[in-house]
Amino acid sequence: MTSINNLVVNGKKATRDGFGLGLLEAGRANDNVVALTADLLGSLKMDDFKKEFSNRFFQVGIAEANMMGMAAGMATVGKIPFTGTFANFSTGRVYDQIRQSIAYSHKNVKICASHAGLTLGEDGATHQILEDIGMMRMLPGMSVIVPCDAHQTKLATMAIADRFGPVYLRFGRPAWPVFTENLPFEIGKAQILNEGSDLSLIATGHLVWTCVEAAKQLATEGISCDVINIHTIKPLDTETVLDSVSKTRCVVTAEEHQIYGGLGEAIAGILARQLPVPQEFVAVNDSFGESGKPDELLTKYGLGIGNVVAAAKSALKRKK
Q1: Residue 2 has what pLDDT?
Q2: With 80 as the cut, is the pLDDT of residue 63 above it?
Q3: What SS3 class is residue 225?
Q4: Which domains can be identified in the chain, with CATH numbers?
Q5: What are phi and psi of 231, to 5 degrees?
Q6: Which residues contact residue 296 at a Cβ distance below 8 angstroms, ignoring those fewer than 6 apart?
Q7: What is the per-residue pLDDT across 30-54, written as a single tens digit (0 to 9) for each?
Q8: What is the DSSP string of 130-147?
C-alpha cells in the first residue's frame, strides 16, 4: 500500500534549481533545444546551459513579448525553444503573443515560468501572479505542468522537450522539501502518494507537501486520506481522480493559485459531470498577495497545513 510514511525527504531545494538542471540535460540530449531569457539568467538557473551551449542561448533583455515571438519563429524552423522569466511576465505580460503566435498555431514552445504564486515572497503583489494556471489551461492545446519539488521539476523539464506542442511549466523560488526522488514521472499521470479511504486530498505544486503534512496530522485523528499529486493540470489524469473520489466520496483540492480557474475548478468540472461529491477548496480567495516571507504569506492567505486540515473536516461533514 502506498504511504506517505515511505517518502524520503532529501533536504530542501528550490524547484527553479530543478529547472536549471533539467534544461541542461535536455540540451545535452537534443541539439535542437535552445534557451531564451528576458534578463533573468541567474533567477531562472540557466547559467549552466549558457556555459555549455552558448551558441544556443539567447539573452533578449527586458522584452518578454519579443522573446515569445522569437521562440515561435525558432519553433517554426525545427528548434525547441525554452523561454525563461518570472511567471507573471511569462503569462500576464505576454498573453496576446502566446495566444496568437504560439497556441493558435500549436508551436513547439516551452514556456518556463519561475517565481510563481505567493512564495515569490518579498517582491510583492505585482510579481506574485495567482491567475496564470487558469489563463494557460484555457488556451486550446496548451499543456500545463506544475511540479511539486526540485527533482520532479528536473524530470518535467526533460520530459517536455520530447513532447510536441506548447507547454506551460510553472515552478517557484523558495527552497522546498525534495521527496519524489524515488518516484517515476510521466506527463499526464498523477502520483498517488498515500492511499486512504475517507477523503481525497488533491494538490499541485508547493501545496503537495502541505497536503502530505496535513494527511499525517489527520491520520492521528483517525482520518485516512488519499494524497494525490496532480503535477499535470492539463491534460488532467481524470481516471486517477475518479478512482480516488469514487472510493472516498469527498475531496479537498489545494493550490498556490486563485480559487478561480486553477486545479480546484478543473477537478470540480470533472466531478460535476461524472461524480458529484462534496469538495472544499484551499486556494487564494479572490485576492492579490503582498510582500512578506513565503511561509507567512501561505498562512495569511489560507494555504497552510491547518487550512487543509480544516477543509478536510468540512468536506467530511458534508459527506453522505
Answers
A1: 85
A2: yes
A3: strand
A4: 12-177 (3.40.50.970), 183-318 (3.40.50.920)
A5: -80, -25
A6: none
A7: 999 999 999 999 999 999 999 999 9
A8: -SHHHHHHTSTT-EEE--
Q: Which three cell numbers stand for residue 22?
A: 533539467
Interacting residues of 6 by C-beta distance below 8 A, sequence separation 6+:
none
Judge whether 221 counts as a catalytic residue: no
Classify each residue of 231-249 as buried b or exposed e, where b means 16 or more C-beta atoms within 10 Å of its C-beta. bbbbebbbebbeebbeebb
Query: What proportion of the chain, given as a percentage, has pLDDT over 70?
Result: 100
* CA dihedral for 64, 68, 74, 79, sign (positive or negative): positive
Contact of 121 with 250, CB cutoff 8 Å: no
Residue whose grid cell is 480546484: 264
Pairing status of strand 175-177 against strand 191-194: unpaired
Is the pTM higher than 0.90?
A: yes
Q: Which of 52, 64, 131, 296 is catalytic?
A: 64
Give the separation between CA 300 and CA 255, rounded to whole angstroms.
14
Question: C-alpha grid cell for residue 62?
Answer: 527586458
Say whether 301 sits in a helix, a strand or coil: coil
Nearest to 41 by CA among 32, 51, 33: 51
Q: Are 146 and 229 in contact (CB under 8 A)?
A: no
pLDDT digits (tens, 9 = 90+) for 69-113: 999 999 999 999 999 999 999 999 999 999 999 999 999 999 999
CA trace torsion 84, 88, 90, 94 (10° rounding): -150
pLDDT per residue as tens digits for the range 5-18: 899 999 999 999 99
Cα separation, 219 vs 317, whole angstroms: 17
